Amino acid sequence: MSLLTRDNPGETHLMMGNEAIVRGALEAGISVAAGYPGTPSSEIIETLAKISDDIYTEWSVNEKVALEVAAAASFAGLRSLAVMKQPGVNVAADFLMHLALSGVRAGMVIVAADDPGALSSVNEGETRLYAKLMEIPMLEPGNFQEARQMTCWAFELSETLHMPVLVRTVTRLSHASGNVTLGKLPKPDRKAFFQFNGDMLDPMEGPIMSPPVGIKHDSQQKKLEQAAQLFEDSPFNTYGGPESPELLIITTSICDLYSKEVVALLNLEDRVGILKIGTTWPLPAQPVLERLARTRNVLFVEEVQPFIEEAVKVLVAGSHLDLSSLTFYGKYSRHIPTAGEMTPERVTAALSTLLQLEPDPVSQDYPPRGTALPPIPPREISFCPGCPHRASFFSINTVLQLDNRQGFTCGDIGCYSMGMLPGGFFTLKTLHSMGSGSGLASGFGKLEKFGMNQPVVAVCGDSTFFHSAMPPLVNAVHNRSSFTLVVLDNSGTAMTGFQPHPGLPVDTKGDQAPPIDIEKVCRAMGATTRTCDPFDLEATQKQLLEFINGDGGVRVLILKQACALSPEKRHTRAFEVTVDPDSCLGEACGCNRICTRVFSCPGLLWDAENNQATINDVLCAGCGVCASVCPQNAIQRKELP
Amino acid sequence: MQLLGPTELSHRILKGDLCTSCGACADLCPYLKSHGGKIASVFSCDRETGRCYAACPKTGVNETVLSEALFSTPWRADPLGHYRKIYMAKQGIKASKGRFQNGGTVSALVIAALEQGVIDKAVLTGSDGIMPRPRIVTTPEQVLECAASKYIAAPTAARLNRAATEGDTNLGMVGTPCQMTGLATLRTNPLARSDFKDPMGIAIGLFCTWALSGEGFLSYLDQQKIDPSAIRSMDIPPPPAENARLTLAEGVKKLPLDEIRKRVLPGCSVCPDMTALWTDLSVGALEENPEWNTLIVRSERGEALVNRAVEAGLLEIRPISQTSVDNLTLAATNKRKRALAAQERLGMLDPAFQNPLEIQPKQTIMGFR
To answer: Is A380 in Cβ contact with B40 (below 8 Å)?
Structure first.
């Protein structure tokens, strides 16, 4: 039994932030959880699917649908959870706007995982602004214990207010681990029934909808005022430090830990106080004003947007406090960087400037220890050995360059986003949100009448196809756009850990489910389709050339080959790959090391001493594609049983 | 003359619009390939020297080296190049009829070379509708399918490179001066490779004054509302003719030569070679008599092939008039003069044109973890 389902209140366990969130949701007695995979949020749904049979968990096709699935449960009287990474909130935002207005019944919580510093993202989006924009309450856990507690309490809050509640986590909370003391696991009554016969405005028995907007919006704002009241004496807002500190840090989320660490490291406990806000929106006035009245200098420590900073400034402007006695430092004063994630170093730098310190946090023996290490060779981020994307991009790039009309490829979100980097031969020339590669291609494909004759290619993964590439594809077919969509089908949502998607014959729990055939879907839409194995470079390039040189229209090439790390492929090799030392001519070949300089699979090594390519037996995944890349047939492959 | 690499080739010739798509640089390596009648650079190559650069007839032709290597004789700057004999020629009585531009000499020579085992295969330029398509042939029927002049540039030399890479030797090749110059340079093994084998069994050059850009010509046809697939044949008569003749299903269509010349590849203007100097045999029209060809015999093995073709009744040769040789010499001299002037104008004679280029590598996103 997982420790997450242990019913021993008071026990303390080491848990990952995302596990603490799961535990909080279990302690709240949720019945339904839905989400779309995305780092750093993925472990929440994944864990719930694994540990609890009482709960319905679902990897939905995208975040908007996940939010809708969760909302339906709430409408039917079951506590529910929707989970997504920050860009998913953008996807779900349209429904969220209306849900915030219509209200919910049983407790409904949205966990949004932000990724400051874009460690696993192609943006640095902020969910906190959504709380303000959507006018819903938001909680921000500052540590692992709070992740459990806040998630659990968020359901109660949601039920009190009949409103969805946001819980915002960040990468360093979701993916780090800390001690969590368990609470009680309830035995909820899981009877679902949707009441709709009551009065139009009856939140518990009437129909659930956003109109009449005037009345609903008014009531929504009253609920938000109620939330602010409830937050006034919330235990999630804490203060530590001297009664009248020289400088007050106001912080939220995991930034609290950075602040505490630095204050302790610099021995500033008697000079600096830390006010940590857990109930970030709506910002409770009293706990903040109370601390502001006892200091003259305020430093805001937060990631990305100056959210708390602005909220506090607005609060002060409307308060009785004498503004002239307070000086604010933060993002507006440039003491805290406006982009990138928070680090102890950044807090140290700000405090050092403000308090005129000369800190030397690095221990004396650190530099010599650092230089004693052997030098690490520089490495580009790239695809894994045996990754089908490398082969696919090799072909796409080859074909577009052969074609010679300056054709280009619109990228999308997945491991294959790395197609913009040297490891993907710089193939991707645009990269935005999920599904936008196909949408951009649909637009580019209509510019022929303005003289554009460049061939247009878009790529998307199999999971992305279902998530958001289908509407642009429909758009392109209907509007007679012209481009080639290459579906890089590696049989799963690979980047986030092989979560199933609607194209696979299994559901979230691994049970049998009807798969949806991507090629048939595209054909039904009216696109011309073909399927190739990307490891067959010749066939793939031939097909792609045919599509690119075709008479226009929407063409879909499905390049189907499972991810090298997929559970079904892992540790198996299709080929034994070797380099024939007599055939490899090294630098004399004229190939300019196309295997290791261009194709660059980590399973291939350049043995400079012997002036030859070699195979790294440990890393080689046995896909055999490099054998097709070698012009000298020096790389040989033998089929393995 | 300095041997440089793909960077200079790509920037000065391909991007400089000097490429005539001869194909000599292509299909020698994984980076430069011929596709759809053009040369494409697939992935970047940063070698400082390359056969690609050496092979390109636009990066500079080392006439001294070529003359020694091919004819064992010093280069004497004769506008017609080194030759042993010049004849007027046409196909012999035993040759099959084909759709020739003039006397069918080239087809007769290639068929003779194949039939007599001088070569195993020949690399010729066939047609796919109006567009030229390089192909490998082994039978007289296939040779005849490739007969008649092509006016659009084709990377036929690349097809020979590919065959050579695949291990073919004893290949016959028929090509234009740019194609033959590139291949002749490759035959001198410019990078001194240890695995070098000369794949060329017989090299037959075609007289040439210019070639059309496939793209440019197709867009001109499009402007004129002519479906390229409906064109059965095309003939561009020598001056003073003013029109090209296109045979279509519904009859002959004339297009003004002035318009067509606007679609000539810019790179042709710098080509000094009219008669394909670096071959075993060179063949062209005989201006005085369209039923016959001019045949220049340059090498010993070229002479041997002519003799065998005549003996087999595949080829008929006659002495050529001095007037014809004088006219040819004048035309060749004029082309050379015009080309050198154009080279001067475009800075190709400037020593800097032979200097290595330093191209900064593309910026990558650093700090992306």
So the answer is: no
